[in-house]
Recover the amino acids of this structure.
């Protein structure tokens, strides 16, 4: 049982002025993008302290996204696991079905303030692409989404949703044809159209200021969860759990609790077919530091520094890097990053669906699987908050296929 | 004096501008690269830029992306590129060689190891596309400690303060990216480039190269009137790509295009 701890400036002081989280982060891009990134940083600093901007953001989060999202006590799941009380932060109930929209709303409002008329984004599972296409439709902005050709195959319903929303979905056939290649292609588009285009990155990776900016837009998750948990129990939770691909839902939940020393944190990485198999997407558990997509962080790479192909049943976690703040939180020991295999995630998917009547996204199912391991090690007077970052409707075809069922 | 400085001085004395071809090392196969380097020198190249293959070439258009993929199929990475330069040096002690690539393979090798081994192999400069001067201090120091020039890009979006800082960090030459876009993009505005190059000259005495979007002899000639060096990449790599099954024919096609550019740049009209 933890109590509210003394606030220290240690965690909120990051990143430094040039976007570094310890040795990680930074701004590693070609010269053409440096000035646009500096302009973006200036706009982001200005508007995050601007009362009108924040009021508009709060109004949209309340009336368009449906915030605050509930903090739900999963009683049957808690009882079945026989340990801690498990609370679900219901980001799956947001408009568009995942936490991604918290960030796209914020960045799109920033794009509007900066006078940009064209929005681009990369997407893996399609959740960020849908969330971006959604806000672009609402604001009447041109929208182009880059998506790996392989992901377009496995996430076809989301591709159709983006097209319904008026976005152009561009298949990316280079490299491994997944999220990292979509990010490369979006960067190439941005460098070609910097004058009128705003690049909405979907996770806490990329060059500074993206990791800090996306975190700040997603931190609404943790701020709400902290207040909701305190109100429900009069205490702080003992542990937080979230899945980590790029890591935006995890940092969104974790960040407002970082200075609460008694709150343990677990980030569930996609171990795919197992860390030892080599077929996984777990750079924090099994990678090493390097530079990709504009920041220094843990990466999946070979001895020559070439980025290696990743594997996860969940397209949203199928990425060889991770946000630089997570790299720093790993090295400092503040957060524990743990591997969760495809099989464990699938078991978590079914368990939550059957015990609570909530179908989680395969990404979020990795967090559920970690809770299944963690909860029995804690007592009934202890509590866990798990970020249910998205709903699983988009994944039912994948799950059925894995179980040999043709829909 | 470094090979790069020596070469630019000799060119200036003869009133000529440098022609700098770029090819991706190991494309379409490792054995093609050293003969291709020699063929380019014979066709009139003054400095050779060797692309170091990378799995995620964010600043490159489709032509060089595909060249990287072909080379990586043969596992050509930074160490093998250094071996190629070493082999080239056995027959050509004079032509400067600049490596152009991305930071992660350099990080994987380690800055000091890379700098020492590059210098020993006969590399004269390193251009790391995704390493702006703000993050480059450690690598630049290692390179300069081994007599290798850190080459930096300047862009249409660089303001005066950035141009000044970059020119102070650079040695060898500076490379002006002539348009907003990736390598191999369509066309460039030579008059606009001329104004930018004049602006850059106010900040540095280093030679100024111009690249991105130079596809033919006429454009090369026009750019050579305003810059000290003309960098040509995708147009040459396209010739390699058109002859993947016959690398010798690819080398001949690259040499032919370079020869046209050389002639157009040197003609006095």
């Amino acid at each position: 049982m933890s109590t509210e701890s003394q606030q220290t400036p240690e965690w909120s002081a990051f990143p430094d002025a040039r976007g570094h989280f310890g040795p990680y982060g930074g701004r590693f891009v070609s010269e053409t993008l440096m000035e646009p990134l500096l302009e973006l940083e200036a706009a982001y600093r200005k508007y995050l302290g601007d009362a009108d901007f924040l009021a508009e953001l709060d109004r949209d989060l309340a009336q368009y996204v449906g915030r605050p999202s509930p903090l739900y006590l999963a009683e049957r799941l808690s009882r079945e696991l026989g340990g801690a009380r498990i609370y679900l932060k219901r980001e799956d109930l947001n408009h568009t079905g995942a936490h991604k929209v918290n960030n796209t709303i914020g960045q799109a409002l920033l794009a509007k303030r900066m006078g940009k008329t064209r929005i681009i984004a990369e997407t893996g599972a399609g959740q960020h692409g849908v969330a971006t296409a959604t806000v672009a439709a609402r604001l009447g902005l041109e929208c182009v989404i880059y998506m790996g050709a392989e992901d377009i195959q496995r996430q076809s319903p989301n591709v159709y949703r983006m097209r319904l929303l008026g976005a152009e979905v561009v298949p990316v056939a280079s490299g491994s044809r997944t999220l990292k290649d979509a990010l490369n292609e979006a960067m190439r588009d941005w460098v070609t159209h910097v004058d009128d285009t705003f690049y909405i990155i979907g996770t806490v990776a990329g060059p500074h200021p993206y990791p800090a900016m996306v975190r700040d837009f997603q931190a609404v998750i943790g701020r709400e969860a902290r207040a909701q948990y305190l109100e429900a129990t009069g205490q702080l939770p003992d542990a937080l759990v979230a899945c980590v691909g790029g890591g935006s839902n995890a940092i969104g939940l974790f960040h407002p609790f970082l200075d609460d020393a008694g709150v343990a944190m677990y980030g569930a990485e996609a171990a795919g077919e197992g860390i030892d198999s080599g077929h996984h997407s777990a750079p924090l558990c099994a990678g090493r530091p390097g530079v990709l997509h504009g920041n220094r962080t843990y990466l999946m790479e070979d001895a020559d520094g070439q980025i290696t192909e990743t594997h996860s049943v969940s397209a949203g976690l199928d990425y060889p890097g991770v946000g630089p703040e997570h790299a720093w939180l790993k090295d400092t020991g503040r957060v524990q990053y743990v591997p969760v295999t495809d099989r464990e995630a699938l078991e978590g998917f079914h368990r939550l669906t059957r015990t609570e009547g909530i179908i989680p996204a395969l990404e979020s199912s990795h967090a559920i699987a970690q809770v299944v391991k963690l909860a029995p090690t804690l007592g009934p007077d202890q509590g866990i908050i798990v970020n249910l970052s998205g709903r699983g409707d988009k994944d039912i075809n994948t799950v059925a296929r894995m179980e040999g069922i043709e829909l | 004096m470094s090979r790069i400085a020596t070469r630019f001085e000799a060119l200036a004395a003869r009133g000529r501008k440098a022609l700098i071809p770029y090819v991706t090392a190991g494309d379409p196969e490792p054995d093609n690269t050293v003969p291709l380097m020699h063929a380019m020198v014979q066709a009139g190249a003054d400095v050779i830029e060797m692309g170091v293959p990378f799995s995620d070439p964010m600043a490159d258009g489709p032509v060089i992306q595909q060249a990287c993929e072909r080379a990586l199929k043969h596992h050509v990475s930074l160490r093998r590129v250094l071996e190629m330069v070493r082999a080239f040096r056995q027959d050509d002690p004079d032509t400067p060689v600049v490596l152009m690539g991305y930071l992660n393979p350099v990080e994987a090798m380690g800055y000091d190891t890379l700098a020492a081994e590059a210098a020993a192999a006969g590399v004269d400069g390193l251009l790391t596309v995704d390493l702006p001067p703000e993050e480059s201090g450690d690598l630049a120091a290692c390179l300069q400690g081994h007599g290798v020039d850190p080459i930096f890009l300047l862009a249409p979006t660089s303001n005066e303060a950035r141009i000044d800082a970059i020119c102070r960090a650079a040695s060898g030459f500076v490379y002006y990216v002539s348009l907003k876009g990736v390598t191999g993009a369509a066309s460039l505005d030579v008059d606009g480039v001329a104004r930018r190059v004049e602006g850059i000259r106010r900040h540095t005495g280093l030679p100024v190269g111009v690249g991105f979007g130079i596809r033919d002899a006429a454009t090369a000639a026009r750019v050579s009137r305003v810059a000290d060096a003309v960098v040509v990449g995708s147009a040459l790599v396209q010739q390699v790509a058109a002859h993947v099954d016959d690398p010798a024919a690819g080398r001949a096609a690259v040499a032919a295009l370079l020869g046209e550019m050389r002639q157009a740049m040197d003609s006095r009209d």
User: Anything to note?
Assistant: Residues 137 and 166 of chain A are 7 Å apart (CA to CA). The longest strand of chain A covers residues 264-272. Chain A touches chain B at residues 18, 26-36, 174-175, 180-181, 184, 187-188, 191-195, 289-294, 299, 301, 303-308 (CB under 8 Å).
